[in-house]
Design a protein that fits this description.
Layout (H helix, E strand, L loop, with lengths): L9 H14 L3 E4 L4 H13 L4 E2 L9 E3 L13 E3 L4 H4 L8 H12 L7 E9 L8 E7 L2 H10 L1 E2 L1 H7 L6 E6 L23 E5 L4 E5 L4 H4 L2 H17 L2 E3 L2 E6 L5 E7 L6 H5 L9 E6 L3 E5 L5 E4 L4 E5 L9 H6 L5 E3 L2 E2 L5 E2 L10 E3 L5 E4 L7 E2 L6 H7 L9 E5 L8 H4 L10 E2 L2 E5 L9 E3 L3 H9 L2 E3 L12 E3 L12 H13 L9 E5 L18 H12 L5 E4 L2 E4 L17 H7 L4 H24 L13 H15 L1
Parallel strand pairs: 1-5, 3-18, 4-9, 6-8, 8-10, 13-26, 26-30
Antiparallel strand pairs: 2-3, 5-6, 5-7, 9-10, 11-15, 12-13, 12-14, 15-16, 16-25, 17-24, 18-24, 19-20, 21-22, 22-23, 27-30, 28-29, 31-32
Bound molecules: oxalic acid (OXD) and manganese (II) ion.
The site of oxalic acid has 7 residues, from helix 7.
């Protein structure tokens, strides 16, 4: 066993010492957070065959990792919220009694770091010293996690200095679950191979995170989903703020007026694209603050102020191209870690829909050779001479559908530096939010944009969100629409009904509720009967953002309909409607309509989801009241009035 290093903070020492004794690593390294340390760990991984160094001329300081086939996405089925009472985890989470879970997991952790190095990562979620920022200590035996955490969060000595002798932090423990026997050679991606041996566990009451068996981002970079969403959502509820699965962007109008927007879309539904979008509308400028998570706190003036707790982007690679998101591609130019993409012969990377020709030959995400299709330069197949159709029919992809880039935010050419640093008007308050958007991938029914009539109606809209399941999660439901309230379904740290209530409370407890952001529901993904997209998306989404800003300013009217306030077609600015993809006015007309029949079905499924949420409380013998732990009446009322308006 290694000797536990000294720490000025006794709680940090106790956390590390406890796990040193359980996991029995060969050595312990405390992460300093320097560039040299990051570089040295990456090079060590190259030597061990765990990273491929990319061409330093074209991709300086960039590396490629290939994961084990079992470890390509988040594992929702193995993710647990271990509150003392099951009802506190709610109907959407897997639950186990905390002590039972600890007992079970401790068996797995026992000796799990034998032959390995235990890294101690002090990290900050948010700019160090900002009043909204929180801190964590992640213990891990994965150097991949160390270098990814280094990009995704602010790590190292500065955090320990900030914690001082008694600062608080969220304690996190992670192991890939693959101890090494004496002399045993390591593999390229150590992990527990069987899904049932993986655990992603949050203890919301103790505010701890225990993760075992997976090296994949969302399961292993514990600052991200586990802390910044699951644990933070519980902290936020207890303390009166919000931790949300939202991008944050700054939009500047031609008149130089600034707006800050957040948007909650489910995983792999275009948050990174919207966060870095190049507006098609002339004179409008968009800057990025964050692409995945927002922490929002009410200010004394009633506005919600937001920071991005992260320090980098963990983006989905396939589909990211110079057309769809040039700023994301530019963010990956240096200092980036790629996972499960194609390696080209000249030491660069490639993925499907990257907008550039595939190499004639490459190495696919599984480490096997792959070849450019004979009839399409932008597709690759597993054998030479294949056609695009053959590849499509075989279901083969050269880069995994959930392959990722981990890129430093500072690389982003349109980063709003002050906002990213949590500064507004010279003060570390975070930025004031003008509008909150919800959205999802919805091929039918849901209009392009829909404005909530009130805060409560906006909460209803968020609670009713749904989307097609994407490859960001290991699931047999990919492509099917599932309810994903506020895009938080996999990330609630407590009971979803209490979470809805918390959203409603934000209005009730606000010092000035008139200053709360306006709420919108957007859908860039409507499809025609022939399967084509009816809205071009990407830069054309600036047309919708402009309408939202005009509504905030009270400059344009809207159609007041039972489902919400919809734009007049003439208020969607169609200037500069040029390029490969254009807005088709007939399609626009269609996607601004209320599809009455579609909505009747929609509200029936929303109602069914509410009933499912309520069922848990009804079965719980300790929940005696008829209203506690159930979908708030205010949301049920909106559902009922919508149903009666549609049936009129
Ligand atoms: C992510 C996700 O990685 O939501 O951001 O899965
Ligand atoms: Mn996400």
């Amino acid at each position: 066993m290694a000797k536990t290093p000294k720490f000025a903070n006794a709680k940090v020492f106790a956390w590390v010492d406890k796990w040193n004794k359980v996991c029995t690593p060969d050595r312990i390294v405390v992460v300093k957070g320097t560039k040299k340390e990051h570089h040295d760990i990456c090079e060590m991984m190259v030597k061990k065959g765990q990273f491929v160094k990319l061409n330093p001329k074209t991709r300086p300081d960039c590396y490629l990792a290939r994961s084990h086939e079992s470890d390509v996405a988040r594992v929702e089925g193995r993710t647990f919220i271990c509150s003392k009472r099951e009802i506190d985890a709610g109907p959407t989470n897997h639950w186990m009694e905390p002590e039972a879970m600890k007992k079970l997991m401790l068996k797995s952790y026992k000796g799990c770091m034998k032959g390995r190095t235990m890294y101690v990562i002090p990290f900050a979620m948010g700019p160090i010293g900002n009043p909204i920022t929180q801190y964590g200590i992640e213990i891990t035996d994965s150097p991949y996690v160390v270098v990814n955490m280094d990009i995704m969060t602010r790590t190292g000595d500065a955090v320990l200095r900030h914690l001082g002798a008694d600062g608080d932090f969220i304690p996190c423990i992670h192991s890939v679950g693959a101890p090494l026997k004496k002399g045993q050679k390591d593999v390229a991606w150590p992990c527990a191979k069987r899904i049932e041996d993986k655990f992603i566990t949050q203890f919301p009451e103790e505010r701890q995170i225990w993760s075992f068996g997976s090296g994949y981002g969302g399961n292993a970079l514990l600052g991200k989903k586990c802390f910044a969403l699951r644990i933070a959502s519980k902290l936020a509820k207890d303390e009166g703020w919000m931790a949300e699965h939202m991008l944050i962007l700054t939009l500047t109008s031609p008149e130089r007026k600034q707006y800050h927007l957040t948007a909650a879309f489910p995983s792999a539904c275009g948050k990174t694209n919207l966060a870095m979008m190049l507006p098609k509308l002339k004179g409008w400028r968009l800057q990025t603050i964050g692409d995945d998570i927002a922490w929002l706190k009410p200010g004394e003036d009633g506005r919600l102020y937001a920071i991005n707790p992260e320090n980098g982007f963990f983006g989905v690679a396939p589909g990211t191209s110079m057309d769809s998101n040039p700023n994301a591609l530019k963010s990956c130019k240096k200092g980036t870690i790629f996972t499960n993409v194609v390696l080209t012969p000249n030491g660069d990377i490639w993925w499907e829909d990257m907008g550039v020709d595939a190499p004639v030959e490459g190495i696919d995400w599984k480490g096997n050779p792959c070849y450019r299709c004979v009839d399409d330069k932008r597709r690759m197949g597993p054998r030479p001479g294949m056609t695009k159709k053959e590849v499509k029919e075989s279901g083969y992809v050269a880069a995994h559908k959930n392959s990722r880039f981990t890129a430093p935010a500072e690389n982003c050419p349109v980063l709003d530096k002050a906002g990213f640093d949590g500064i507004w008007k010279g003060k570390p308050t975070g930025v004031p939010i003008d509008a909150i958007l919800f959205g999802g991938r919805r091929p039918s029914t849901i209009p392009l944009v829909n404005e909530a009539k009130s805060w409560t109606h906006g909460v209803f809209m968020g609670s009713a969100a749904g989307s097609e399941v994407t490859a960001a999660v290991i699931s047999d439901q990919i492509g099917q629409v599932r309810r994903d309230p506020m895009a938080m379904l996999p990330f609630f740290g407590y009971n979803v009904c209490d979470y809805f209530q918390h959203w409603l409370e934000m209005e009730r407890t606000s010092p000035d509720a008139t200053k709360l952001p306006k709420i919108y529901f957007v859908n860039w993904f409507r499809k025609g009967d022939d399967g084509r997209f009816m809205w071009p998306g990407f830069g054309d989404n600036s047309r919708v953002l402009k309408w939202i800003c005009q509504r905030i300013e009270g400059k344009v009217h809207a159609h007041v309909t039972p489902i919400g306030n919809l734009p007049l077609e003439s208020d969607i600015d169609l200037s500069n409607n040029e390029g490969k993809f254009k807005v088709v006015p007939e399609d626009l007309r269609e996607i601004l309509k209320v599809d009455k029949e579609g909505w009747k079905k929609e509200i029936a499924t929303v109602g069914a989801s509410y009933d499912e949420y309520d069922a848990k409380a009804s079965k719980d013998t300790e929940v005696r009241s008829k209203t506690a732990r159930r979908v708030p009446k205010a949301l049920r009322d909106i559902l009922a009035s919508l149903a009666s308006a549609l049936n009129r």
